[in-house]
Amino acid sequence: MNIYDISMEIHPTMQVWKNREDRKPKLTITRDYQQGDDGRETRLSLDMHTGTHVDAPLHFVRDGKTIQHTTLEQLVRPVRVIDLCGVKDRITAENLKEFAIGTGDFLLFKTRNSDREDDFDFDFVFLDGE
Description:
By secondary structure, the protein is mostly beta strands. It has helices spanning about 70-75, 95; strands at about 25-30, 40-45, 80-85, 90, 105-110, 125.
């Protein structure tokens, strides 16, 4: 099995939810040679919802499970990439019918959002509630 890293790069000017400055990652040098230290260390501070991430059920489900209940084996496995770049605003059940999605299929949706890293698109493509 080939493994592809599709993670966004984390940096202080990266795209974040609604372009909010308070959501951008902060890098703080906590130890440095110039301060007389014998090494350099940097603290990274960011929201759990930054960049490429997995939402725990608790994010949207009251009393849902936290991310500690998700194992690595649940996340690293074969995946089907479904190209939905033609979808304008929301992914509906109708958009997915042609793909014969089965129970337990692990899916990655490629949308017009996929190539955007500079700033937040307020008109992003999302999954419809149905």
